[in-house]
Amino acid sequence: MKTLIASLLIAMTTCSTAVAQSACQAFFKKGADLYLEPQDTQMALFEPDCYAWRLFVALNWPSRKDQCGADPGKHLGAEGETVWEKWISKHDVFLPGAKAPATWDSHCGTVQIAKTLAPSAQLAAARTQMADQAGDLTPFEPPTGDASTAADEEVRMNRETLEFIASKRLYSRNEQMRLAAAKIKTIEFPAAAKEVKAHWVKLEDPADFGRYHIGKASDGTVYGLVGWHVTTKDLPRWFWATFEHVDNETRWPTADPGSFAGWSLKPIDRFACDGEAVDCGKFPRGIGLDGTKWENYRLKATQIDWVDSLGEPTIVVNSKIEGGFIQSQSSCMSCHALAMMGEAPPPMPFSIINLDIPPDSSGRVANFKGVVDADDRRPRNGVDPNQHFLQLDFVWSLRNAQPEN
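The structure corresponding to this sequence follows.
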């Protein structure tokens, strides 16, 4: 059966695409207010690749000093932290003892600049066959090793995401289990909710500093942004877009093949490649990226539904963030559909590894693609499959909720 969005696409594309597809391009041509955080369901649905770049520009706009929000007086590519880097970290939302997180205004008055990263959850999950059932990653400063294989990930949420989690007490694992026990099937984030996942690599050559967006740890270690993934609640199953630095194609897979899988799947970008093959591998001109560090980043793919209009599973994968997975067997939406909580621990009751497909020659494992149905949900060891489960609205970070004291 066709899903809601696929049906809309089939029914509406013929009469509406020509009009809708000009909206995002017109926005960029206007050139004003590019720094404003967008929330546009129609644009997400009909112009996903262009909308992804609109998000990329706005959220990577330089932020105000020691505050949340964009600085309109700065230009894209200026030095300093970006808008999303001032958002609240998941580690400041899911606190020990399920303590309530700070309010947005309180957080924005005490923004910390130094990078505090955590182990790559996806990569660690693939390498250990999801053996870690605790799900309570503790933040720590990046190691001083040669690469960022041990700690390289940060996840941040915008105001609407934080306030929804706080208002529903979803920072408490006990509350999530209570909702599951009460037979609540799912939760629903507000349309303006957004979350960003970023991956970094240690940079030692100063020549690289101008080619990457960089961040520094408290000890002065310089890290370069190599993977940037954004999801927004513009659509029922969220809107997904993932970006990578061009060096992820061959440089980092050679230097650190354990963490970087390379580009076995080329970038797909209908906006940047307008009039050319969709895998042209270019960045979009004329939207502020030219001549800045951001021209070294590429949109790998966007996702608005499980399947395309022909019923084929859609595949969206970041070769760094999902470095432990077989790229042709990965889908953001399918993986995140397994973000669930049961009446009892663990907070990840179902494996995100598709055990029906063997690992490849490099040891990478299969994820899921297409619609994930009940038969795909394989209970972890010790999980009672007959209990009630709460669907966490595709938000994996909610698994970091802590038990109450």
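Residues 4-30 form the longest helix (27 residues).
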